[in-house]
Design a protein that fits this description.
The chain has 262 residues and is mainly α. It has eleven helices and no strands. It has one domain. It is globular.
Length: 262
């Protein structure tokens, strides 16, 4: 058990180092984040002045920062898994002492962690400079960031599961794009769900994006122990659902490899 954990920790560390070495990609990501924060800060400043609400931009720019930390930090896991299945790479690892799925997941989390940390550090500086006083107490911030990191890990897990759909689909790009759009809509990735009609929020609650996007991100302006507990509970439920699907799909893959040879 300890040896297996050490192997996966090494895979995480290796992926972390590789992601850190891609300075051009990381610089482009931070530049895009800066542009996004700057533009939306101006938008919320104007809306706040029109509505006479002071500090509206601070609330929603911090919200936007955490949303983008979750979404933009995630690598394209569905494409990695799709290529592995279609090329037969996954079949090579099926009977190996290291789980192929956990191996790829650790690599994805290592990649995500670099982007998440850099975006968090850079984004906090920019957001604080743009908005000043944040809408949360500073003692709450470590808990909020921890929840966002957990949500980012769930996001990687979710798109890994989508990648396994390559067992039945000839292409998953359209499926992945559809889920990305739904995540922005039902997860409140740009605008909080609180500004939408109640019937829309009721629909969003049945999607996984409501749990690991909205419930987590809204802690930045609506932190309470009850909200934190609800986010943990619902995220745990969706983790169980995603893992159940992945376990079932992985069993199908193993059976196909053992019977048909890949």
């Amino acid at each position: 058990m300890t040896k297996s954990f050490a192997k996966y920790a090494m895979l995480f560390a290796l992926s972390f180092k590789q992601a850190w070495s891609r300075k051009a990609n990381l610089s482009g990501l931070l530049f895009f984040l800066f542009i996004l924060l700057f533009i939306y800060n101006r938008l919320w400043e104007v809306i706040g002045l029109q509505d006479g609400v002071k500090g509206l931009n601070a609330t929603f720019i911090w919200y936007l920062l955490l949303a983008e930390m979750i979404i933009l930090s995630s690598p394209k896991m569905e494409r990695v898994l799709f290529d592995d299945i279609r090329s037969g790479t996954m079949a090579y690892y099926v009977n190996k002492p290291v789980s192929f799925f956990i191996m790829r997941y650790c690599e994805g989390v290592g990649n995500m962690t670099v982007s998440f940390l850099l975006m968090g550090f850079f984004g906090c500086i920019v957001t604080f400079a743009l908005t000043g006083t944040p809408p949360f107490a500073w003692w709450q911030f470590p808990l909020i960031v921890l929840m966002c990191y957990i949500s980012s890990c769930i996001n990687v897990l979710f798109y890994t599961g989508i990648g396994l759909c390559a067992l039945w689909l000839g292409s998953i790009r359209t499926l992945a794009m559809a889920f990305e759009r739904l995540a922005f809509i039902f997860g409140g990735a740009i605008f909080p769900l609180s500004i939408y009609p109640e019937w829309f929020v009721d629909i969003a609650k049945w999607t996984p994006f409501y749990a690991f996007y909205y419930l987590t991100i809204k802690l930045v302006y609506d932190f309470s122990w009850i909200n934190l507990w609800n986010a943990v509970l619902l995220n745990t439920l969706w983790i169980a659902v995603i893992l159940t699907f992945i376990g079932w799909a992985y069993a199908k893959l193993n059976k196909k490899v053992n019977i048909y040879g890949g």
